[in-house]
Amino acid sequence: MEKKIKLEKIKKALKKTFPSSKINKNIINLKIGSLKKWDSLGNLDLILEIEKEFNLKFDSNTFSKIKSIQDILREIK
Question: Which H, E and C letters describe 19-64, residue by residue?
């Protein structure tokens, strides 16, 4: 899958998970703490939304590694 398409899907998941936050066009450098409510619980919600959006399942090790958009991109094959 092309990186641009991945970023669009991630952005969609960000908007669904954090509806009260303004999501800028360039999301590549976002990480936990970058958005209001993106804390450990918000991160879990985001990862679950990413799983839905990309129709995949992360294992528990991957869950604990994902802390940023870069990490998400790295884990989506």
Answer: CCCCCCCCCCCCECCCCCCCCHHHHHHHHHHHHHHHCCCCCHHHHH
Structure tokens at 60: 């528990």
Tokens 């669904």 sit at which residue? 16
Answer for the pair 35, 14: CB distance below 8 angstroms, yes or no. Answer: yes
**Distances, alpha carbon 75 to alpha carbons 36, 68, 71, in Å:** 24, 11, 6
Number of neighbours of residue 4 by Cβ within 10 angstroms: 7
pLDDT in tens, 3-59: 899 999 999 999 999 999 999 889 999 999 999 999 999 999 999 999 999 999 999
pTM: predicted TM-score of the whole model, two decimal places: 0.93
> What are the tokens at 8?
């669009």
Spell 52-61 as b/e; 16+ CB within 10 A means b: ebbeeebeee
